[in-house]
């Protein structure tokens, strides 16, 4: 009997192996378009930018290999140092405020009350609004004779140069950035809140825990992985900020609102210092990588894990 069934068993194994090969082929065929997009629009540009960072290319002439001169120039460029300081300040101020406000909004909007869908939609609208439109709106609001100063004037308060005072302009841009990005992280926190098991909160209530205790002892620990994710993406976003600065202040007054994303654009496309701009981009990549690794190492001290 065993001798008779052996060929059938072998045939089944052969068919199963053939099926796995066919599935693998189809799988590779399906991912090939995405792989080609990533290859041509991510990997090849990255390697080309790395090559550019080692040259003095300015578009108008052939690139000459100069080694690490562009990287050495960054550490001796006072404007680059000021730009990095502005960017770090941007991240240190905007990320904690954004995390706090979006978590607060998510908690408030995680209620089963009439009309809650309208408010969720309203808070998300700025996220999908064009940066140019948002910039123009706030340039009108924050102008020296704009809406906000007219309101302050009606209250007897001196007008504030929101976008033309070097000490205030960067904070104004940060404020607009926070406002525009509230909806995205709010949705992330809202989804995480709705994923918290209600049994845990009910058990805590039975044990006598009040709303504040349940929030800090149950909700926050369970949300800590999401807070960690939002913090990392917020830091990365701060280092990539460009559009609002470009549209609202063009890095001014002076260089008070020049963040690294805008400075890279200016060096590469305004001054045509392609090599220097590429070197700046790789320094930013290194800075983001170091900060991400640092946060990843420190996560074990405050991020909740079921392991």
Give a structural overview.
With 307 residues, this protein is mostly helical. The protein folds into 2 domains: 17-49; 78-301, MetI-like (MetI-like fold). Helix content is 75%, strand content 0%. The chain has helices at residues 2-52, 69-76, 78-109, 116-128, 131-142, 147-154, 169-194, 198-206, 211-239, 243-248, 260-270, 274-298. Helix 2 packs across helix 12, helix 3 (78-109) packs parallel to helix 7 and helix 3 packs antiparallel against helix 9 (211-239). The longest helix has 51 residues, at 2-52. The radius of gyration is 27 Å and the shape is flat. The model has no long low-confidence stretch (mean pLDDT 91).
Sum up the structure in keywords:
about 300 residues, mainly alpha, MetI-like fold, 2 domains, 12 helices, about 75% helix
How do you describe this structure in short?
The protein is mostly helical and 307 residues long.
Topology readout:
Layout: H1 2-52, H2 69-76, H3 78-109, H4 116-128, H5 131-142, H6 147-154, H7 169-194, H8 198-206, H9 211-239, H10 243-248, H11 260-270, H12 274-298
Helix pairs in contact: 1-12, 2-12, 3-7, 3-9, 4-7, 7-9, 9-12, 11-12
By CATH, the topology of the largest domain is MetI-like fold
Number of strands: 0
What is the structural class?
Answer: mainly alpha
List the uncertain runs: none
User: Which strand-content bin applies to the residues?
Assistant: under 5%
Tell me the series of helices and strands, N- to C-terminal: HHHHHHHHHHHH
Which range best describes the helical content: under 10%, 10-25%, 25-40%, 40-55%, 55-70% or over 70%? over 70%
The CATH architecture name of the largest domain reads Orthogonal Bundle
Main sheet, how many strands, which sense, barrel?
none
- Considering the protein shown, what is the CATH homologous superfamily of the largest domain? MetI-like
Number of domains: 2
CATH class of the largest domain: Mainly Alpha
Query: How far is it from the N-terminal to the C-terminal residue, by CA?
Result: 50 Å
What gross morphology would you assign? Answer: flat
Instruction: Specify the number of helices.
Output: 12
Mean pLDDT: 91
Output the radius of gyration: 27 Å
